[in-house]
Amino acid sequence: MEKSRGQWGSRLGFILAAAGSAIGLGNIWRFPTQVGQSGGGAFILVYLIIIFIVGIPLMIGELAIGRRGKINIVGAFKKIKPGSPWWIIGVLGVLAGFAILSYYSVIAGWAVSYIFKFLTGQLADLGAGESGDVFGQLVSSPVEPLIWHGVFMAMTIGIVIFGIDKGIERASKIMMPILFLLLIVLAVRTLTLDGAMEGLRWYLTPNFRAIDISTVLGALGQVFFSLSLGMGAIMTYGSYLTDDNDIPNSAVLISIADLSIAILAGLIIIPAVFAFGFAPEAGPPLIFIILPAVFGAMPLGNLVGALFFLLLTIAALTSAISLLEVPVSYVIDELKWSRKKAATLVGVAIFLLGIPSSLSMGIWQEIFFFGMPFLDFMDFLSSYLLLPIGGLLTAIFIGWAWGSREALKELSKEGVQFSLRGPWFAVVKYILPIVLLYILITGLLP
Ligand code: PHE
Predict the structure, then answer these.
(1) What pTM, to 2 d.p., does this model score?
(2) CA neighbours closer than 13 Å in the CB half-sphere of residue 330
(3) Which residues of the chain have pLDDT under 50?
(4) Which residues pair with 369 in a beta bridge?
(5) What pLDDT score was predicted for residue 350?
(6) What per-residue confidence (pLDDT) applies to 147?
(7) From ligand 1's centre to the CA of 222, what distance in Å?
(8) Whose CA is nearest to atom 11 of ligand 1?
């Protein structure tokens, strides 16, 4: 039974796939947006601190639970603590996977369409005003973005159907290194633009007075979103791990890879924004409006633009497959459906849930949920509520229900030496619940 679930073919394959889950729109679209809106260097500093105090310890915990369970995330909690209600954390994760992928795929769809818009010259030599028009026309149209959303979901379903090492692992092995190289090339290009240095300074100098609780809440949400934590994506990947994997070491590697790509994406986008005299606060449209204008003013801009959006699509795809894998593996184990049936039906349901997000950029613009258009509401719901609450409950589960003996046993199998075992457990048991509760309560209450 356990054999037929599949396992990672190699340690490198696992690291690349998990890094592929972590690295996505969160790094390239969401991170620069957050940095731009929360004061540059100050945000980065808080972000770094939260990665080390919250992100890495939680990732270690999620991988350990996943490997102990060797089953979908709901089943894992049931297996570790039979007869208790902890499995609800797993259900929350399945729901979060649904919610996130529904709007994630809409945004990824825009990126897919931009590859073609660049290749066919529709975005050639535009100023920011005109590229704003192109973006506005795309996202406000009722049908076109839905087609791209559908294309993106179809690609995601396709990869998930091929199973764990034929699909996800192979795709990640090929796509991740290409992504990294493309980013370096683009960073060199934008950093050598006139005026880029001012942006670089703004990006890297922390302004401590800009830090308040909303910066901290924003950074926390960004850490969960970017590291794929709090909803069982990393846990699901952990369930395919072999016992000889050094989990703490893997978690550090994955987190550093994710952090480097985010910083690199900021290095591409923020200096470019300054070089062209735009405001970094422009928000989510930054990469879809300002970057095309930036590319438009470059030699070979069409090619660079097409490459950039290809890279964004690749990054989004390796994240989307991990989002889809959570509900799919649940359905496979629980309802005994075939992988093909599970991935197709769950994928179609997620596509349908994405429709209101897409329409909220156009004909449903005026309909608000808690004061936000539907897409923003889904993003808020996921990164400020579902993920941190999932992480909080997971930490409490490890610290107070699973316990140090069992958790640490899982982390030191087959002679793996975990030298920080004591501090890690103390952080998960005491610090994480306190810090997460504090940030959630003070950040969310008016
Ligand atoms: N980490 C992914 C990104 O940065 C998004 C994601 C969130 C994936 C949660 C899985 C789980 O784009």
Answers:
(1) 0.92
(2) 27
(3) 1-3
(4) 372
(5) 98
(6) 97
(7) 10
(8) 228
